[in-house]
Amino acid sequence: MSFFQNNLRFQIIFPLSLIMAVMLAVLSFSIPILVERNAKQHAIHTALNSLKQLKVLRAYYTKNIVKKVQEFGVLTPAIKHLGEPDKIPLPATMIHDLSQLFDENGSKLSLYSAYPFPNRQHITLDPFQQKAWLELNDNPSQIISAVNNINSHTILRIAISDQMQVQACVDCHNNHPLTPKADWQIGDVRGVLEMSIDISSQLALANTLSLWIISCMLIACILLIILFYFLTGKITEQVSNISQGMVSLGKGNYEIEIPQDSTTLETHQMYTAFKLFKTALLERQALENQQQVFETEKVNSLGRMVASIAHDVNTPIGISVTATGFLQDEIELLAKKFASGELNEEDFESFLASSQSSMTILTRNLSSAADLIRSFKQVSVDQMSEQAREVLISEYFKEVIHSMLPKTKRAQVTVDLDCVEDRACFIFPGLLSQVITNLINNSIIHGFAEQNGGSITLVVSAQENEVGIHYSDNGIGIADDILPKVMEPFFTTKRDEGGSGLGLSIIHNIVTQKLNGHIKLTSGVGKGLTVDISFPVLQAAN
Fold first, then answer.
1. pLDDT per residue over 342-395, tens digit each?
2. Helix, strand, coil % (nearest 5) of the chain?
3. Do 51 and 197 have their domain in common?
4. Same-domain pairing of 117 and 59
5. Are 511 and 528 in contact, with CB atoms under 8 Å apart?
6. Same domain, yes or no, for 339 and 276?
7. What is the per-residue pLDDT across 60-73, written as a single tens digit (0 to 9) for each?
8. Domain range holding 173?
């Protein structure tokens, strides 16, 4: 049950189906009533029109026919006129005659009164007729209606007042020898005009129409629910695909693809959001991987520097050990001669000369080793910490170049430094040393690979708020078609020889992202490489 409650399709279809079911129930109850009421109203309207037309006809007949007949005396208005060539029907008789014709067409027309002529006094008024007479006498303008079921037939009865409309009619009734009432006046309710209509067929048609309407609405609702079912299925499928894609991305499946078959603006927006999220995630993953490779390369670079320093420190240390051993032997020989009493002035002077020579060798070689270790220590600490500190620009560049001395010496490369003296700045020395060491390594590996030795010139300027570095070598240079790519990650022309393709890429990232500076490369085949770098100086407070 919880599945259906949490299912988007169920949450859409179930309320929709419930609303439609309630709506169908209400309409199934109300439509037949409304259609039946409408059929009755239509029948009432038709009957009223017929009755009003009869009243107009009677008034016209009374005024334009009966009156003229009475004035000229050729014909006589009479109740019994059938078969009498010199008699015409009275207006009321005409209505009764017409009622017989209406009976033949399924409708019944009646004219009755509480004051009937003697020939109609035997007719008894039913309850509806009595009610109609009483109410219309009180209010001649109202309409009396009723629906009766007689022998499985539905009969609609409509009654309106029949008033004295013209003076000729009043005179005729008051002067007639058989009149039951002789004081009629204009506007008096003389009788009631009633029309009875069998509306069974209309009601049956209305019921059929209601059934058809309800059936069509039921079919429409079912089709609508089916349509919504498939549409919501399509939408939920798309949403499910996107959500599953997000889950796969979260689990590290960056190759996941989802079909782009969005049918709505919202699902298209979700698909676009998924693509943006995936792109951002891939970019972040690439940056993390790149950063990891950079860190690895930095450690490897430091390791290579350690190996190079260890190799170059080994020589002065070895010489110092040899000198120490020689001095130890001389001391032991001197001690033996002193103990045996054979020590003379010449032996002592020889010992002093040997000791002085050994101490000179020890001092020179240990100082050289100490300088290498001190430069390496400061540069390596800076590279690993990446902390900002105040440094003397000229001295720090000398330390960095000195730490690279073993490698430049073996490659027969000279590094000339032209730097402003006595200028202290707050910078990131570790990041700067990575830039310089990578530039020198790049020149040795690529620039001087096909020639014996070379020269590097490093010009450093320090302004109040900016440090500028102009680096150049006289190597083989870089072709014009390759130059735009050399700072891309993993691009190298010596992958088969172990090139990582990260040297210049690391330099570019450090200068532009960490030092917030700018870098520009200029080169050409046979023209060497020129690198111009500039970056802002940090404020002491920061």
1. 778 777 777 787 777 777 777 766 766 676 666 555 555 545 556 778 888 888
2. 60, 15, 25
3. yes
4. yes
5. no
6. yes
7. 887 788 777 777 77
8. 2-207
